[in-house]
Amino acid sequence: MARPSRKLELSILRDRVEMIDVDDGRGVVFPFPLEENAGVAARAVPPGRLRQNEGGLTIYASAFLGVVDMFSCPVLLTAADVAVAGETPHTRLFKVKKVSLVRLSSAEPSDKDKAFAEVLLGILESGGLFFSYEIDAFMSCQQAAEQGPNADDYFWWSKNLVRGLPPPCTDMAVKLSYGFVGTSRMCTVEGREFFLTVVSRRARKRPGTRYLTRGADFHGEVANFAETEQIVWDPKQPEQFTSFRIIRGSIPIFWRQSNGIAKPEPELDLNTFSSRVAFTSHFKRLASTYGEVLAISLVNLHGSESRLAIGFEDHMSLDAGLCEPPPRLIAFDFHAKTKDGRYEQGLEELKDMLREDLRRQQVFSKAAGTRQVGVFRVNCVDCLDRTGVVQGMISRTMLVLQVYMVCGSAQTGLVEESEFAFKRIWADNADSISKQYSGTGALKTDFTRTGKRSTRGMLEDGVKSVMRIYFKNFVDGGRQDCLDALCGYGQALNLPVQRSNGHGFMKDVSRITPGGEKHSVLVELQNESLVVSNSQSILYEYPRIGLVSWERINSSGSPRLRLIYRTREDATPATTPLLLQFPSNGGGLREKFARSLISWSQPGVAPLFGATYRVRMMATSKDQLQLPDDLGETDVLCTALWKNKDVDSRLTPVPTGFEQHDFILVHSTSYISVLARKKVIPVISNVQEASNGQASALSLNISGVEVCFIFTKLAKPTDLPLALRGLKIGRSGYDISAQFDYIYIGGLVPGADWPDSAFRSMGNGYLSKTTRKGFFILRGCLADLPYTTDDKQEVSSTDEQTSVLFEENIQGRPAPSIPMQDVVRCTVRIRGLECEGVSHPPSVDSNVPLRTYVKIDSDYAKSPGRTRTVDRATSSPRWDMETLEVGLVESSRKEMDDCILLGQLVLSAPILGDSTCGYFSLRLSQKGKFETQILRASKGVGKIRGVLDTEFEAVDPALAGLPLSEGVTMSKRGNSSSKRVSNLFGKMSTYIAGQSSSDPFSRSVTRALSQPRTDSQLEEATQRLALEGPEKDDYPADLLGI
C-alpha cells in the first residue's frame, strides 16, 4: 500500500496545478474547473512526466491534506510546515503548523474567499491537526492491533477532504486527526525511564463549537466527542508498551442552550422517544467499540443543569438494557462535592466509587496479552473543564498499572519532575480540546497542573469565561460554518447560482441554528436534495428521500417548521433537525412550503396521516400506576400521577410494564406521560411540556391535530384558573386553554366524591365529568370541533385509587400536500363585532384609561387581521360599522371548510402597552351570525358575536405550493447585524493576536516557497523531543485571532 508523500513540489500553471512526489515521482494534475462549482477532476500522471515547468510558480510542501470547496473554486490544502508533536512506540506524530491554500483558478479570490480562508487557516493552523507518515494515526494502539485495516475510521477527521478524489490523490494524502499529541520523558523513583504519550482524537461526526453544537443527533453522534489514549512505553524496547483509553462526549439526548448572551440555561429538545433512539444508537456504538461503558456525569444535580442530569438518568433507566453489555451511570455533582476548596476530598470520593471498575477495565498490552475491556465515558455540560480534571485523575490512577507492566517494578512512584510533567501534559491536553470547542483554554487547569486550586487560577478562569462569551456571540458562527464545510456537512459555493431543474424555491426565511442565531437563507427543492444556502454562501443539502417528520412550531412568536432527516452512513451528512423560521405574518407561507416539500419528498410516513385514533387518559393517586387489560383499542394513552413530595424523576408517572402492552413512551414529565402504539409514533410530532408547580401540561400533534393534556391538584374547584395561569406552552402569546384543537384538563380535588355518569356542559364551552375519589376531567375544543366518544360505553377503573377520565376518538388530518383540484383563494370578512360582559385580567387596573381591539389570525393567513382600537368605556365594546378582513393562502375547499380562525380581544393601555383580555375561535364552515365564549385560563370572561362571511375564488392548483425555481437567480442578501458585528470583532481579534491582515492566499503561498524540512532536521527535532519535551511553540495556539 502506498504511503503518503513527505516532499511535494507544486507547480501552479495557467490552467492547472501539478503536484509531484519528489521522492518517487508520482504525480497528479488538477485542471482548473471550466465552470463555477464544477468540483475537482484530478488525474494521475506516470512518474517523470511532470518535470517540465512552464514558467509557473513552484512551491513546496511537507504533506498533502486534501481539497476543500470555496466560493469561487476548489482549493488544495497542503502543509507548508510541520513539526514533531509526539511519538508513539510505532511512529512519530507530526502536527500541522502552516498551511498553504492553492486555488484551482486563475481568477482573483473574492472577499468572501479571503474571509473564509482566514477562519479556515485559524482552524488548520491551531496546532490540533496531526498525522503520521507511516501508520493511520486515527487508530488507537488496541484498535490497530486487533482490527488493523478493517478498523473503522471514526477519528479520521479529514476524510471528507479526500472524498471523491481518485486513488492517486488519496494515496498521496495524509490522514489527519484533530485533537492533541504530547510526549514526555518520565522517570520512576527507582530510576527507570519511560515515555508517556497522550493522544486525543476528536470525532469528525457532529463537529462544531460550544453552544452551537450540543447533545446528540438522530444517529447517536454527540457533540465534542473525543477519545484520549495514554501510552506508556520503553524507548529501548518499543514493543513493551501499554495503552489506556478514556472518552468524553456531550450528554447523548436532545438538548440545546439557545437563549441568553452569556450562559444560557440548558433546555431539553424534542421528545423522549426521539431521544431514546439517539441514546441507544450512541451506547450501542460505544459497546461495540469499547465493551462495557461506565458513564460518569459531572453535571450539577440542582439548578438549571439538573434537567440534564435527570434526563440522562431517566434514559439510562429506560434504555441501558437495550445495549449489550448495558452501560452504567455514576452521577457525581462535581461542583457540590468540591466546593469550599474540597477538591482533593471530592476527587478521592469519586475515585473510591470507581475503584472496582479501575481494577476490572485493565489496559492494553500486546506483549503481556492483556486488553482493555471497557471504557470510562466522562461528561459535564461542555465536556471540557470538569471533564478534564476527572479524566486526568483517572489516567493518573491507571498510570501506576501501566508503569508496572512496562518497567517491571513494584516501585511505580514518579520523581517530582516527572509528576509535574504528567500534570503538564494532561493540562495541555485539556487546553487544546477546550480551544477547539470553546475558543479558550480549559478552566480549572491550575488544579490539573499543580494539584491545587489557586487565586490566580480562579482569576484566569474569569478571563477565559469572558472570552467564551465573546466567542459565543461574535466568532463561533463563522467557525461553525467552516467546520461544517471541512467535515462535509456544508459546502461553500459562489453565489448567485442559476438552476434550471428546480421544483420550488423560497426566500424571506431564516435558518435557526442550535445556538438560537437566525441566518437569512434561500431554500430550493432540487432533483434529489433540499438545498439551504445562507447569507455567507454556505450551502447545506438534505436528501429528498431522507425526510422523516416535520413539526409546525408556533411558540417563538414567528411560525417555524422543524424538519427531521436521516441520512445513510455513506451519504453526505446533514445537520439535522433543520429549523426554519418564517416572517411573523408568514403562517400561510409556511403552509405552502410544507405542502411543496412533502409532495416532492413523498416521505413514507405521509400515507399514515388521516386515520382515527382512540385516546384515553388515566389518573391515579397511588405511587405507581398499573395498566388495565382493556387497552386493546387505545392508540394514545395519557397517564397522570400527582405526588405531594418533590419528584426527582421524569419517569414517575410512567406505568409499569407498558412495553408488555405494546406501548412506546412518547414523552414524560414529572407528573404526566404519554404513550402510543408503534403504528401511531410516526404521526406524532411537536411534543412540548410546561409546569408551574400547580399544574403540569404536555401537548403533542397527532396526525395534524393539536392535543393538550393537563393534570393538576386543587384545594377546591374554583382554583383551576389560578392553577393554569403561567403554563407557557404552544402558540406564543396565546392562553393554554384557547389554542389546541382538543384540550383535556384532569385533576384531583382531595375529599371530593361526586361522580357524574356523563359529561355535562359548563357554559364556557367546556364539558366536565367527575369520578369517584375526587378526580375530574374538563374537555374543551376549538370552534366546536366534534367529539366522537361513545358516552354509553363505560370504562372501568382498575382500582379505587385509579380512574379512567375519558376515552374517545380523534379524527386525524391528512398530511400536507399540494391539492390537484378544487383549489380556491379565500377572503374572510367579519362584520358587526360586539362584545358582552367582558371582564379584564386581574393584572390590569380598571381605573386606567383602556382601549381595545380584536385580532384574527390563522395558520393559513397571509397576514393577521385586526380592527381599529376603540375606547372601552364599558364591558361591551362594539365595532358596528367596521369589517375585519383576512386573506388566506390558496388551498383546497375542504381545507378551508376545516380552517380555524384564532381570535384575541386585546386591551391597550398608555405606557403599559397591550395585554390580551381573552381568546376565542371560529371555523370557516360556521358562516353567518355567530356568538361564542371569550376564554381566559379556561374561564369564560365574556362573549363576542358578529357575522362571518367568506368569498371563494377558484385558482390554478399550482398556486397552492411554492413557485418553481426554474432559472431562478439567488438574490444578494446582506449580512445580519450579528454577522456585521462578528466581522468587526473578528478584525479586532486579528489585530489583538498580532496576525497580518494581508491576503491569506498570498500569505500561505509565500511562506510555502521555502524547502520542506529535511529528514535530518526531523530527526534532530525528534531527539530534542525525547530529551526535553516539545517546544512551547509546538503547543496549539490560541484561536483568538481567527
Defining key terms:
about 1050 residues, single chain, eight-stranded antiparallel beta sheet, globular, eleven-stranded mixed beta sheet, alpha+beta
Structure description:
- The radius of gyration is 32 Å and the shape is globular.
- Helix 1 (111-124) packs across helix 13 (476-487) and helix 9 (385-407) packs across helix 10.
- The chain has 19 helices and 50 strands.
- With 1042 residues, the protein is α+β, with helices and mostly antiparallel strands.
- Strand 37 (767-770) and strand 38 (775-781) form a beta hairpin.
- Mean pLDDT is 81; it is low at 496-501, 791-797, 965-997 and 1021-1042.
- The strands form nine sheets. The protein has an eleven-stranded mixed β-sheet with strand order 6-7-8-9-10-11-12-13-18-16-17, sandwiched between helices.
